[in-house]
Amino acid sequence: YPLTFARIELPPVKTFTFDAGALMDMQESGLEIPKATLAAFKQGVVRTWLIPLGDTPFSTVSYYDNGQRELFSARLRQIFMENYRKTSSTRFFDVWTYKTTGG
Known about the structure:
alpha+beta, 3-stranded antiparallel sheet, 3 helices, 27% helix, globular
């Protein structure tokens, strides 16, 4: 839908650009998700993510290959699930929050 790649800032947030369209082009060119991006997910650089209600986080498929290829790696999804938890839901989104130490 039209808001799929809308950029919504939820404070506090550090500078972190994660563009699905650019990632699709990188993947099509044979490039993998940068290690620094995986590290950012581990470190919780973005503390709060809005995921479309009921969707598995980062389960988007690439527009290339008629949607036959997952956009995000299994490793990225694993890191996300290890470091974030769903804390609430709104009418359209699930809210996922970084797990702080001891939490």
